[in-house]
Amino acid sequence: MTDLTRASDSWLTSLPHQQWLHDQGQTLLDFAKAARVPFGFAQLDRFGRRADTAPADTITTARMVHSFSLAHIQGLPGCAPLIDHGLAALAGPLRDTEHGGWFASPHAQDGNTRKAAYLHAFVALAASSAAVAGRGGSAELLGDAVAILEDRFWAEDEGALRESFARDWSDCEAYRGANSNMHGTETFLALADVLDEDLWLDRALRMAERVIHQHAADADFLPIEHFDAHWRPLPDYNRDNPADGFRPFGKTPGHGFEWARLLLHLEAARQQRGLPSPEWLLGDARQLFASACQFGWNVDGSPGIVYTLDWDNRPVVRERLHWTLAEASAAAAALLQRTGEPMYEVWYQRFWDYIDLHMIDRQYGSWHHELDHDNLPSETIWPGKPDLYHAYQATLLPRLPLAISLASALKLRC
């Protein structure tokens, strides 16, 4: 953090604010513990309940393992058995023992046998965090997940991740997604720490350069989400299904915030290891944040950040999603740490004020995952409250340095 930030009345250096973040994180963890089911973790409804027959899914399970690993590293009780439960699910019913990799659900009971980069990035992230937490079986799981990422998903000639394959690793999807490569960047930052290998930072830089420095710069510094196999933008992708939860039509301001933060982590990590760090990492992070604020915040007459925009930067899906606000606050904190500039303090406080007033559900717990245009609870895109990962990380990132991935930073701090 710069001297300017230290000298100001920043929430980042406020002990009461840090305590508030800690307490908020604890309530999120307590709510999420109810998601445990026999084959991993399942999604919770808005009341924190799950049906007795609620199925586990791999993304939820991986995110829970990651989040509970972060909590365990801090010394928060009750998390170790949940980590081990999730690791057992990832090593067992969620895994494809015949062809390798992971299904979206136990034994592919949902009928989906495709292997997706997005999902595998989260499995590797979960394994890396569990390894830092010292949990048994995590090192083996991490080795397997890394091998799959390298052998199947990483395209050296593209400098990016391929999107998905059939169960037997045939039928490579003729689509490239910014979302999977964004979470691949997050995972590669963690792998660089846990494996102590610069290679992952070089790969993360190549992904960021392609998706952001080459393409987002041509779209008002809002990430282009969808590409064909040759990395040509697909502007009409999902026009008939604009509110898709993973591949929405148009531009997504929330991903602008998320990419901005990741670029700063990547810059700091490369500098810490003595690797070349291009100036555009900071410059593009500033631009991404500015565009996401300009085109996403309060643009339809109501407070909050809209989910998507069209190619003229007009709102399309106006729901406010909790992960967008989580990433906005984390990006503001990262830019404040990096630059010390007061405007990022203003945005940081503004985002948390909105979260406190609108997103935190003080009646049933956790955060509303979706609000409508009038900031009332909605479930048109994300039913229930399945996601611990985004909100919990938002309570941790402002308290940690940029240079080290979350699990490693918490380990050093504790």
From TrEMBL:
Keywords: Isomerase. It comes from the Bacteria. It holds the Pfam family GlcNAc_2-epim. InterPro entries: 6-hairpin_glycosidase_sf (IPR008928), 6hp_glycosidase-like_sf (IPR012341), AGE/CE (IPR010819). One of its GO terms (biological process) is carbohydrate metabolic process. GO terms for molecular function: isomerase activity. The keyword Isomerase applies. Belongs to the N-acylglucosamine 2-epimerase family. PANTHER family: N-ACYLGLUCOSAMINE-2-EPIMERASE. This is Sugar isomerase. It comes from Pseudomonas helleri. The lineage of its organism: Bacteria, Pseudomonadati, Pseudomonadota, Gammaproteobacteria, Pseudomonadales.
